[in-house]
Amino acid sequence: MQRRTILHGILALPLGLLAARPAQAETFPLMLSDAEWRARLSPAAYAVLRQEDTEPAFSSPLNDEKRAGLFHCAGCDQALFDAAAKFDSGTGWPSFFQELPGAVGYREDRNLFLMLRTEEHCSNCGGHLGHVFDDGPAPTGKRHCINGLALTFRPAV
């Protein structure tokens, strides 16, 4: 009986680690109700920006965008990345080696495989953008792997 109790406890431990992280009480300059976000965004953009979903790799036309300009948050229109910092990472998502100053925020994120990652969000509205990794090119060595659904592009004039 005691062995069974210990075994159940050991088996239950990983399940607790996989539980969804508690809702964060973060505040941002732009705060909207869930209904307002749903009215503002397409269902796919809502899933990415507000529910931390990930779009399928190679599905965004912004992955192939090569013009000069700025990439903005699809939720609030804040400028996030300069096209000059974009590179082809081969991952299937728009990737950048540097964000615009003060444009994004970060927090730790554990996925279902318990891999620790750094989640990236818009500093103005808190919308989920993607993740940042330490395997990018010079000069920063960073790879901001961003969902295209979280972005809009404005070409330089």
CATH H-level homologous superfamily name: Peptide methionine sulfoxide reductase
CATH class: Mainly Beta
Structural class: alpha+beta
SSE string, helices as H and strands as E = HHHEEEEEEEEE
The mean pLDDT is: 87
Q: What best-fitting shape do the alpha-carbon axes yield?
A: globular
Span between termini: 74 Å
CATH architecture: Beta Complex
Low-confidence stretches: 3-23
From the 3D structure, determine the CATH topology. Answer: Metal Binding Protein, Guanine Nucleotide Exchange Factor, Chain A
Structure description:
The protein has 157 residues and is of the alpha+beta class. It has a single domain, classed as Beta Complex (Metal Binding Protein, Guanine Nucleotide Exchange Factor, Chain A). It is 21% helix and 27% strand. The chain is built from three helices and nine strands. A six-stranded antiparallel beta sheet has the order 3-4-8-7-6-5. The protein has a three-stranded antiparallel beta sheet with strand order 2-1-9, with no helix packed on it. The chain is globular and about 40 Å long. The N terminus is likely disordered.
Summarize this entry quickly:
The chain is an alpha+beta fold. The protein has three helices and nine strands.
Q: How is this fold's topology laid out?
A:
Blueprint: H1 2-18, H2 34-40, H3 43-51, E1 69-73, E2 79-82, E3 86-87, E4 95-96, E5 104-110, E6 116-122, E7 128-133, E8 143-146, E9 151-155
Antiparallel strand pairs: 1-2, 1-9, 3-4, 4-8, 5-6, 6-7, 7-8
